[in-house]
Write a structure and sequence with these properties.
Layout lengths: L5 H4 L1 E3 L7 E7 L13 E3 L21 E2 L2 E2 H9 L4 E4 L23 E3 L5 E3 L5 H11 L2 E6 L6 H12 L5 H8 L10 E4 L12 H13 L10 E4 L8 H9 L4 E10 L16 H11 L1 H16 L6 E9 L18 H16 L7 E3 L10 E4 L2 E4 L1 H8 L7 E2 L2 E4 L4 E3 L2 E3 L2 E7 L5 E7 L6 E8 L5 E7 L19 E6 L5 E5 L3 E8 L1
Parallel strand pairs: 1-25, 2-23, 3-6, 3-14, 6-9, 9-10, 10-11, 11-12, 12-13, 13-14
Antiparallel strand pairs: 2-18, 4-5, 7-8, 15-16, 17-21, 19-20, 21-22, 22-27, 23-26, 24-25, 24-27
């Protein structure tokens, strides 16, 4: 695919608008809730090559590594300022027994990964290796416990093994295995997708189990992680209703999963590349359902938890297409295109608008699986358009959201259906600057967007734009930089600021006073 040349993308807007005018009003005088940096969390499951090869190659590999973790992949992830990583699953978590992954690696048992491809799982990556990765990345850990096939004792002993600062047998075993100080577990999930692969439960039954398990999960007072109850998915709000009433005291949040399928049908989801515009449109339509899902669940939380103690954690989300032909269906490998970057940015803007409740999300997944940041093939590595979207949005981590409204929007339509043409979000970053993100969902038509900042002077903006000529533009190992961000700038004219937003694009800019 041929991407637009950077010279075309390095826009400096001086002329009058040529297309339908849209306006975005931003009130800098009324700061909203902080956008928790953990909204930009990542997910690494024992699935396909998401961990083995994609991240872990072992200390004896010819691929350059740090204690077994690939230097190239780790270096790229560090540039994203990844705030939080979830492990070991996912569906895999409810079949994972933590003792299989400690001690000498050459003595660990080999199991079968029955969820993902039926391949051998040699447990080379276990608790110590995962926390080593967390510390190399300078991030925090979200550990998902095994409720589905485990026991309260097993889960409690894992938490003790990780966090205890005593002389208990488990703490001493951790020290013998090479870790003197306790690990910091920021979040701990009690089970995963209890409605499906985690046990096919009803919410009432899971709520009882959750409280049962949570009763025995004990840590030193200053080391207790935020506890997460496994919630619902898609249109199902029953889990939020039940858990917000029944979950044990000390619960920090309820999880939620939603994947974007172009067709909306699991049996035939749609292709990752070579798709028609009709599937571009349906993908936009499907992913924008996220806002409604969050609103309905938050309404329940506001009713049952008016003090806002509970967070709403979208700890699995992203695009899900038919697997790449010729690959193991259980590995969930798909190409990642400009469409995925637009989907990511639309969801970021949605999460920002619900920052008071949506305090953490996890895209699925970090490397080689579903909507990945990075794709590898043995020693080769490339960055995806989704990676670039995450990097562009770094200024929004822990930024203070600002009231933002899109006015006079020109809808993007297909037949008798339509979606918003422009999505916008803004925030004041930790550096004091105002940042604005714009997404154009229309793959055919650019849009001129005027920016009205209330309470702040503006002389122009500088930042980046991500777009390309083809809807399915993507990077390959032969052309790893076919699509990447380009510089973007615009200057105010007579006190007015107008940004030309290319078709099918993502823009993030800082406001120059």
């Amino acid at each position: 695919m041929k991407a637009l040349k950077p010279a075309i993308l390095a826009l400096s807007i001086l002329a009058a608008p040529a297309f339908a005018q849209v306006s975005v009003s931003i009130d800098t005088t009324r700061p909203g809730p902080v956008i928790n940096k953990n909204v930009y969390g990542q997910f690494a499951e024992h699935l396909g090559t998401g961990i083995y090869e994609g991240l872990w190659v072992g200390p004896d590999s010819r691929i350059p590594n740090t204690r077994g973790w690939r230097k190239d992949v780790v270096g790229a992830l560090k540039e994203l300022k990844v705030p939080l990583v979830r492990w070991p699953g996912g569906c895999f978590a409810d079949e994972y027994h933590w003792r299989d992954g400690i001690g000498a690696r050459n003595k660990r048992p080999v199991k079968v990964n029955t969820h993902w491809g039926g391949v051998a799982e040699d447990n080379a990556v276990g608790t110590h290796e995962f926390f080593d990765l967390v510390e190399i990345l300078g991030t925090e850990a979200y550990v998902n416990g095994n409720l589905g096939s485990g026991t309260p004792q097993e889960m409690a002993e894992w938490l003790e093994y990780m966090t205890s600062d005593t002389k208990s047998t488990l703490a001493e075993q951790r020290r013998k295995n090479g870790r003197k100080e306790p690990y910091k577990v920021a979040y701990f999930g009690i089970g995963n997708e209890a409605w499906g692969c985690g046990g096919n439960m009803k919410p009432e039954y899971y709520a009882h189990l959750y409280n049962h398990y949570a009763t025995f999960l004990k840590t030193p007072p200053n080391a207790r992680p935020k506890m997460i109850a496994s919630g619902g998915n898609d249109d199902d709000t029953r889990w939020t209703e039940v858990l917000s009433k029944e979950a044990a005291r000390g619960t920090d949040g309820i999880s939620f999963h939603f994947y974007t399928l172009p067709t909306g049908v699991w049996e035939k989801k749609g292709a990752a590349t070579g798709f028609p515009e009709a599937e571009w449109f349906s993908t936009m339509q499907q992913t924008l359902r996220m806002d409604g899902h969050i609103r309905r669940n938050v309404a329940i939380l506001d009713k049952n938890d008016p003090d806002k103690k509970l967070g709403f954690y979208v700890d699995e989300w992203g695009t899900w297409y038919d697997v790449e032909p010729g690959t193991n269906p259980g590995f969930l490998f798909q190409r990642n295109t400009l469409r995925d970057a637009v989907v990511a940015a639309l969801n970021f803007n949605i999460f920002h608008s619900h920052a008071d409740r949506v305090r953490m999300t996890m895209i699925a997944q970090m490397v080689n699986v579903l909507q990945a940041m990075i794709i590898t093939d043995k020693e080769k590595m490339l960055l995806t358009p989704t990676y670039h979207a995450y990097k562009m949005y770094i200024p929004f981590q822990d930024a203070t959201s600002l009231p933002t409204a899109v006015n006079n929007d020109v809808a993007y339509s297909s037949g008798n259906k339509s979606v918003p043409g422009i999505s916008a979000s803004s925030a004041r970053g930790k550096d004091g600057k105002v940042y604005v993100a714009l997404v154009n969902t229309n793959p055919q038509q650019a849009s001129d967007v005027s920016i009205d900042l209330q309470g702040q002077a503006v002389s122009g903006v500088t930042g980046q734009v991500l777009t390309a000529e083809a809807m399915d533009a993507h990077n390959t190992f032969d052309k790893p930089q076919a699509i990447k961000p380009a510089p973007y700038s615009a200057k105010a004219v007579d006190g007015k600021l107008t940004l030309k937003v290319p078709a099918k694009s993502v823009i993030v800019v800082a406001v120059d006073a």
